Amino acid sequence: MHDLIARASAWLAEDPDPDTRAELAELIEAGDEKELAARFAGTLQFGTAGLRGELGAGPMRMNRNVVIRAAAGLAAYLKKNGTPHGGPDAGLVVIGYDARHKSADFARDTAAVMTGAGLRAAVLPRPLPTPVLAFAIRHLGAVAGVEVTASHNPPRDNGYKVYLGDGSQIVPPADAGIAAEIDAIASLHDVPRPESGWETLDDAVLDAYLARTDAVLAPGSPRTARTVYTAMHGVGKDVLLAAFARAGFPEPVLVAEQAEPDPDFPTVAFPNPEEPGAMDLAFGRARATDPDLIIANDPDADRCAVAVKDGGDWRMLRGDEVGALLAAHLVRRGVQGTFAESIVSSSLLGRIAGKAGLPYEETLTGFKWIARVDGLRYGYEEALGYCVDPEGVRDKDGITAALLITELASGLKEEGRTLLDLLDDLAVEHGLHATDQLSVRVQDLSLIADAMRRLREQPPTRLAGLAITRAEDLTQGTETLPPTDGLRYTLDGARVIVRPSGTEPKLKCYLEVVVPVPDRADLPAAHARAKELLEAVKRDLSAAAGI
Question: How many CA atoms lie within 13 A of 66 on its CB side?
């Protein structure tokens, strides 16, 4: 306890934030050994997702102390790797932020650290979608970018996402290089943080982003689909409305309760469109206004969710369904280039690309990998992430994805058809590719490690009565993939991938079954068979993993 108090007191002496200083002083005074031990058990680890964690005092929480160290480590890494610094030709670092608690403070601290290190810093004018920051890096010729966001995590969290000058998120070995520079910082007193010297950008960069959205849509395409839109208490509303107005779509009907930024996310348990209940208000608005589709962004607007009327009510489309729809739309428009997705996404994309004679690649999970595919024209991931304009934004972008799906819905509407009709076409042409996820959130991270170990030591041989024809431990890498902590099982007509989440305390299992559909009349039976198989795979996998 004495050592714990000493470490906490040393941290307190450096803490520049009165809020976390008061919080930590109270814990020290109370002698709260359990809480202090949790906060000083180590340090938040900087990796390919940057940093993400719960707000609060101490090295295991997100706070100004941790952010200043991260910014200083990034600045040192940039300078060591040939970035010009000092004077008018100094390398530019662009900084964006969302509307979460402390985001603006973290952005200002980052700008101060970059300036103090002899780099140039420019901060976006206000909380804006993450894709605007990703666009700004390439548009302004920056050497790096930082986005302060925890995306769709709970309200108590914040995060720190780093991009390099190509406009895509960091990958190894850059993450390890930056982490080593962070670890080398002995004291905050060694990090110069001037009170001024950085630039706050005006709306010119946002105007340039909006102008770039013109490239997403086909000239003269139908623009008639009516939408209900929710920003999920995030920063997407104003930019999406401006993009829709520019494109000539009908003005979306807003879910008023979720339209404005609110870091407490009062109407949802988790501000993620995929979570149960998150879309209930949007469904209610749609029932009252009868639009053609519902569009939702997550809080930093890099993801896009879509819901459609199915029979008498509304349902969310899976990310894999939207991914296939956008791919089919782009193929129909005659685009050229590589289609790419992560290994946890549906194999349907490969079949669509193959039929169209387009190159296709699989990558590890995350847009940091998808964005780096040579010749990329379209990339998506099942977790509602779509890159539809890689020349403009080399990352997932919930604004441009919303434009493209609404263009598709408009074209189908002119033909008297819907997004569901097109999904049926794809099922008849390529087989019904049905996907689901078994996702387990834990308090104790050792449960995830135990499940992975159990599956490695006693791998299943059958799931849902289907023989496993190939089992791969992805920690060894493959001919096309670098090593990652994951397991992939190939079955006769199915596929399963198991991996720990990189951003949340979750074990994620991604399931896909493929059922042939000889004719449209066979669709109901195929859907029933797919549902039965997915439930059986889920049950058997859960038993095998002990979760």
Answer: 28
